[in-house]
Inverse folding.
C-alpha cells in the first residue's frame, strides 16, 4: 500500500496497480506486471508525481501525469521498466530527488535509476530478507535498512538476530551495523529529520529510537513498549471519564487489569508503519495550545489500530482502534499506509484486512480524535474523528469473484482451517481412542499431507532433482521429427499420447482398443495392455509412474500396473451412462478425475494388484464416487485439466458451449465461468505442471493456461481470467 497527499495506490486483480484520487474519486488502473505486485511507493516530489511498483519479474516507475493524459487520449499508459528478475521485493523507496530507487529484493538492496534500466549499486550484507530502507536527507548517499536476520555468526549470540545497517550507496560500503536489537523481525523504519533520529518497529509491538547525530555513534535513545503505553493511556482516559470513539458508537474504555480474563486471547501488536504526524497543522487556529505541542509527533500503524506518539516524552497521545467503529468492517489489519501531510485537518489512511480480501480508505480527523481522548484539549462539540470513505468507487473490482478466487484459492498448499480436538479415552484404557463425537465438523473436502518427515522430503527432493528433465531454454523449439515408428501392422489411429512425469516412458491409446507403452526413444515396446471393447480415448500416468489409467469409448475405465498386463481396477458400464473421457490421477494420486457427458467425477480408490489363487477373478481394488460436478449450460465437456504433480484444488473444464469453467474442489463448487472463450469448442487445456519442490516461488506455477480450439490457441492469465 502507498499514500501521498490525495492519492492512494494498491494492487488490484493481483498484477495491476490502482491509483485512486480521493478528490475526484476516479481510479486509474496501470497494467504492466505479470506476477503479483509486492511493493509500492510514491515519489518524494509532487510535480511530477511518480509511483514505483515491484513484482518478482520487474520494477516499473509510472509518471501519473503522463498516465492520466494517455488514458484521456484513449491510449494504454506505460511505465518505465527500471529492473527485471530481481526476485521477491518487499520494499521500494525513492531517493529525495526521485532520481534513484532503493529496491529491497531478498537479502540485498539494489539501487536503480528511476529513468532507465540500470543497476547503480548492489548492497549485500544482510543474511535474510530486507524489510525496509530509508534515505537520510542531510547525509549525502546515506541509506539505512532493517532486516530479519535469521542466521548467526561466530562473533554474535547464538540465536535469531535482527540487525540494522547504514550504507554509503555511492561507494557500496557498509558504514555501520548494529548489534542485536530484538528477537523479533524489524518491520518498519522512519528517519526523523528534525531530531536526527531513527525509529524502527518490530513484530512484537516494540519501538526503538536511535540517534543519527555523528558524535553519538548510533546510540539507542529509548525503547518503547506499545502494549504498556496503550494500557497506561487507557487507564488515564478511564480515570478522567473520557470515552474513546465518542460520537461513533459510545464504546467505553474499560480499565485494564493485569489478570487476563479466562478464555481471552493475547494478541501481538506488529508495527507495520511509522510515519510523521502533521499534528500542528490541525491546531493552527487554536489559541490554547501548550508549548509541549512543539515536539515531534508520529503515527504508529499496527494490526489493531493507529497510535500517536509524542517524541518529546515518548508517551501515547491518542489511540484509534478499528473495532470501535461500527462503520468499519475491518477489525484486524494486515498492512496500512498514511499520508504524511494533513489536508483540511484530515489524514488519509489505507488499510487491508488480515483475513479477507478487503481494502478500506479512511479519513481521520486528527483534531477531533485528540480532543475526545486527551485531557489537555477542551471538547468542541461531538465531532467525528473517523469517516469511512464511500466504497462505491473502490470496492466493486475488489469484490469481484475472480479477484477473490485467484488471490485466495490458487494456493497449492493452502490447508482449510480446522479446530483440532485431542483424542480422549472413553474408558479406562489409554490405548482406546475417542469415538470422535468431540471432533469439530469437517470444513474442507480434503487437505494435503504436508507434515512429511525430513527423510521422506529429502528423498522426494532427491528423486525430483535426479529424474526431472527440463527443456533447455537456450534451444530452438522442435520443428523437425527425429524418428517415425509404426505402432501396428495396419494403419490405426492414435487417439492419445502421454509422457510419464520423468519422461522415461510414453503411453499411447489406440483405436484398436489397446494401450502401448514405449521407451522414450521409441526403440522398443515396454508393455501392451488389452481389454477395452472400444477405442482408447485417454491415458494418464500416476505421480509415482507405477500406474496407468485409461478410458475408452466402451464406457469403461481401467487402471493398469505398469509391470503387469492385467488391470488392477475396472469400472464397468453400469457406473457410467455416457462415454468416459479425460481420465487422470489427481491430488498426488489420491483421486481419479474423469468426464462423463456434461459432468466430471471425483473418485477415491485403493489399488491392490495381488491375486488370490482361489478367487483369482475377484477384484481386490476398490473405488468410490466422492462427488459429481456438472458444468453449467453445456451438453458435453470437451476438455479437462488438473495438476497431479503437486497439491492443487483447481480443476479447469471446457464445454461444447465454447465456455471455460474453473472449479475449486476444496470448496466443492464452481468459482468462475468464461463464456465464449473461443468461437469454437475448446479441445485442449494445458497447464504448467512443474515440480512442487522447485526453488521458485509457488506463485510461479499455474498462473497461466493455454487453450486450443478450431479458431486458434490462446494464453490465459488465471489471476484475471483474461
Amino acid at each position: 500500500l502507498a499514500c501521498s497527499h490525495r492519492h492512494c495506490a494498491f494492487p488490484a486483480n493481483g498484477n495491476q496497480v490502482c491509483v485512486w484520487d480521493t478528490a475526484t474519486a476516479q481510479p486509474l488502473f496501470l497494467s504492466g506486471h505479470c506476477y503479483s505486485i509486492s511493493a509500492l511507493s510514491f515519489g518524494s516530489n509532487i510535480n511530477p508525481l511518480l509511483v514505483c511498483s515491484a513484482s518478482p519479474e520487474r520494477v516499473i516507475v509510472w509518471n501519473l501525469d503522463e498516465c492520466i493524459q494517455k488514458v484521456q487520449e484513449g491510449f494504454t499508459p506505460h511505465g518505465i521498466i527500471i529492473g527485471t528478475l530481481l526476485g521477491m521485493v518487499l520494499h521500494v523507496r525513492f531517493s529525495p530527488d526521485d532520481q534513484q530507487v532503493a529496491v529491497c529484493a531478498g537479502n540485498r538492496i539494489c539501487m536503480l535509476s528511476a529513468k532507465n534500466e540500470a543497476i547503480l549499486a548492489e548492497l549485500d550484507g544482510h543474511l535474510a530478507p530486507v524489510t525496509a530502507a530509508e534515505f537520510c536527507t542531510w547525509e549525502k548517499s546515506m541509506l539505512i535498512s532493517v532486516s530479519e536476520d535469521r542466521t548467526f555468526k561466530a562473533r554474535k549470540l547464538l540465536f535469531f538476530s535482527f540487525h540494522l545497517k547504514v550504507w554509503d550507496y555511492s561507494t557500496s560500503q557498509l558504514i555501520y551495523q548494529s548489534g542485536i536489537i530484538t528477537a523479533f523481525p524489524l518491520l518498519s523504519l522512519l528517519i526523523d529529520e528534525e531530531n536526527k533520529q531513527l525509529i524502527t518497529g518490530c513484530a512484537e509491538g516494540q519501538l526503538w529510537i536511535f540517534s543519527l547525530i555523528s558524535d553519538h555513534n548510533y546510540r539507542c535513545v529509548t525503547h518503547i513498549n506499545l502494549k504498556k503505553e496503550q494500557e497506561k493511556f487507557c487507564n488515564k482516559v478511564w480515570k478522567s471519564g473520557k470515552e474513546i470513539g465518542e460520537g461513533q458508537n459510545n464504546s467505553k474504555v474499560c480499565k485494564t487489569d493485569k489478570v487476563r480474563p479466562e478464555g481471552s486471547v493475547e494478541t501481538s501488536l506488529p508495527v507495520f508503519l511509522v510515519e510523521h504526524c502533521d499534528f500542528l497543522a490541525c491546531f493552527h487556529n487554536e489559541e490554547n495550545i501548550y508549548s509541549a505541542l512543539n515536539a515531534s509527533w508520529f503515527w504508529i500503524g499496527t494490526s489493531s489500530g493507529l497510535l500517536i506518539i509524542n517524541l518529546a516524552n515518548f508517551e501515547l497521545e491518542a489511540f484509534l482502534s478499528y473495532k470501535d467503529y461500527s462503520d468499519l468492517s475491518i477489525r484486524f489489519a494486515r498492512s496500512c499506509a498514511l499520508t504524511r501531510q494533513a489536508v483540511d485537518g484530515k489524514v488519509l489512511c489505507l488499510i487491508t484486512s488480515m483475513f479477507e480480501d478487503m481494502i478500506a480508505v479512511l479519513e481521520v480527523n486528527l483534531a477531533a480524535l485528540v480532543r475526545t481522548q486527551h485531557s489537555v484539549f477542551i471538547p468542541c462539540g461531538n465531532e467525528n474523528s473517523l469517516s469511512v470513505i464511500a466504497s462505491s468507487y473502490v470496492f466493486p473490482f475488489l469484490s469481484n469473484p475472480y479477484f477473490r478466487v485467484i488471490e485466495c484459492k490458487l494456493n497449492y498448499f493452502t490447508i482449510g482451517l480446522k479446530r483440532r480436538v485431542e483424542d480422549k479415552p472413553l474408558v479406562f484404557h489409554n490405548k482406546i481412542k475417542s469415538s470422535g463425537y468431540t471432533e469439530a465438523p469437517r470444513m474442507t473436502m480434503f487437505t494435503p499431507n504436508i507434515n512429511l518427515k525430513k527423510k521422506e522430503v529429502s528423498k522426494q527432493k532427491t528423486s525430483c532433482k535426479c529424474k526431472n528433465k527440463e527443456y533447455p531454454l537456450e534451444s530452438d523449439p522442435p520443428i523437425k521429427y527425429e524418428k517415425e515408428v509404426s505402432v501396428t501392422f495396419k494403419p490405426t489411429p492414435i487417439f492419445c499420447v502421454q509422457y510419464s512425469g520423468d519422461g522415461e516412458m510414453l503411453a499411447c491409446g489406440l483405436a484398436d482398443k489397446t494401450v502401448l507403452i514405449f521407451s522414450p526413444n521409441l526403440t522398443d515396446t515396454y508393455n501392451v495392455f488389452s481389454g477395452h471393447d472400444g477405442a482408447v480415448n485417454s491415458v494418464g500416468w500416476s505421480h509415482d509412474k507405477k500406474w496407468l489409467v485409461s478410458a475408452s469409448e466402451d464406457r469403461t475405465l481401467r487402471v493398469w500396473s505398469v509391470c503387469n498386463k492385467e488391470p488392477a481396477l475396472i469400472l464397468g458400464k453400469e457406473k457410467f451412462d455416457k462415454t468416459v473421457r479425460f481420465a487422470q490421477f489427481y491430488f498426488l494420486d489420491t483421486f481419479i478425475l474423469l468426464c462423463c457427458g456434461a459432468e466430471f467425477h471425483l473418485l477415491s480408490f485403493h489399488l491392490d494388484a495381488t491375486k488370490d489363487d482361489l478367487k483369482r477373478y475377484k477384484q481386490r481394488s476398490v473405488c468410490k464416487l466422492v462427488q459429481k460436478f456438472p458444468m453449467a449450460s453445456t451438453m458435453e465437456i470437451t476438455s479437462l485439466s488438473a495438476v497431479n504433480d503437486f497439491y492443487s484444488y483447481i480443476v479447469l473444464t471446457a464445454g461444447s458451449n465454447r465456455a471455460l469453467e474453473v472449479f475449486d474442489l476444496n470448496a466443492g463448487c464452481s468459482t468462475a465461468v468464461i463464456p465464449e472463450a473461443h468461437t469454437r469448442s475448446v479441445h485442449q487445456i494445458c497447464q504448467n505442471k512443474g515440480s512442487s519442490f522447485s526453488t521458485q516461488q509457488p506463485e510461479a506455477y499455474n498462473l497461466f493456461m493455454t487453450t486450443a480450439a478450431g479458431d486458434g490457441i490462446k494464453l490465459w492469465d488465471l489471476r484475471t481470467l483474461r
Q: What stands out?
A: The chain has six helices and 47 strands. The domain at 2-189 is CATH 2.130.10.10 (Methylamine Dehydrogenase; Chain H).
